[in-house]
């Protein structure tokens, strides 16, 4: 485990993410500004990355106003294209100028697990804030909960890890490494938030509003699976089914934080009860 003074940069960033779910826009972006300025001072963000982030957030901020005033659709589509493409590059760590912090370098969750490396990212969270500005409905609303549907989603998610162990990709291995708290903090407040914001908050929700709920659910889940294709076809397949579980929870709660919590619980159960990230052959 590698911790440095620069690690403290992520505290205002995580606070900004939490604030984003409370819809306090001013507090959210004050905290984000503090985090980015500190990152610039510590050399974790370079001026080019700061400029790209600023332009992205400004373009995202303009979209709801353009939509509300029924401005030129081509301009709206252009803004959305800029936001989606830039967020995709942030998601894939393809934009220059972000020096993400290495905190876990080839560590082992257990004796039968593959080595695991983890960074604290600054680029991926920027995508969350951009989507929050561009799509105000991102975090959902407070509709009545549908407990039968939620139970169905939980059953699906609970069954996936044992099924993965039957394929030989995982193996039961009880472990709680000393870096579990860092994994949990990063996974809950950064990884799961950003992924759920993109796939459930934006893609699933917007397609469900435009077409049907099941079309949005399936499309977002398939795209979520494809995003994991780098780990092989089997991982992509299981990620697709996991995406269906997270998507069902989002559909039946209409609250983004619920799908984030489900996503985190699934990942943390994977860490504690099975070989993580996979079985070492």
TrEMBL record:
MF-aspect GO terms: endopeptidase activity
Entry annotated with the keyword Membrane: yes
Domain CAAX prenyl protease 2/Lysostaphin resistance protein A-like intervals: 178-268
Membrane spanning stretches: 6-21, 26-42, 48-68, 75-96, 116-135, 147-167, 179-199, 211-229, 235-253, 260-279
The keyword Transferase is assigned to this record: no
GO biological process, one term: CAAX-box protein maturation
UniProt organism field: Vibrio diazotrophicus
Protein name, as recorded: CAAX prenyl protease 2/Lysostaphin resistance protein A-like domain-containing protein
Annotated keywords: Membrane, Transmembrane, Transmembrane helix
InterPro entries in alphabetical order: Rce1/LyrA-like_dom
């Amino acid at each position: 485990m590698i911790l440095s003074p620069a690690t403290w940069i992520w505290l205002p960033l995580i606070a900004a993410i939490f604030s984003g779910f409370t819809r306090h826009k001013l507090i959210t972006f004050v905290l984000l500004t503090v985090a980015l300025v500190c990152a610039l001072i510590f050399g974790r963000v370079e001026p080019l990355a700061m400029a790209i982030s600023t332009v992205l957030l400004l373009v995202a901020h303009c979209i709801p106003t353009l939509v509300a005033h029924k401005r030129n659709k081509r301009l709206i589509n252009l803004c959305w294209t800029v936001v989606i493409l830039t967020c995709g590059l942030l998601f894939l760590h393809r934009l220059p100028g972000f020096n993400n912090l290495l905190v876990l370098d080839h560590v082992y969750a257990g004796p039968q697990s593959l080595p695991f490396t983890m960074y604290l990212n600054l680029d991926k969270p920027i995508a969350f804030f951009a989507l929050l500005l561009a799509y105000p409905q991102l975090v959902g609303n407070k509709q009545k909960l549908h407990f039968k549907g939620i139970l169905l989603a939980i059953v699906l998610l609970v069954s996936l890890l044992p099924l993965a162990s039957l394929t030989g990709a995982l193996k039961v291995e009880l472990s709680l490494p000393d870096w579990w708290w860092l994994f949990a903090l990063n996974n809950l407040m950064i990884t799961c938030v950003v992924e759920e914001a993109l796939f459930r908050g934006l893609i699933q929700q917007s397609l469900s509003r435009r077409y049907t709920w099941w079309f949005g659910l399936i499309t977002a889940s398939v795209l979520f699976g494809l995003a994991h294709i780098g780990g092989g076809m089997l991982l992509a397949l299981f990620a697709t089914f996991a995406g269906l579980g997270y998507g069902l929870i989002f559909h039946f709660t209409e609250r983004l934080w619920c799908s984030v919590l489900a996503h985190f619980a699934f990942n943390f159960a994977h860490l504690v009860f099975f070989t993580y990230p996979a079985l070492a052959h």
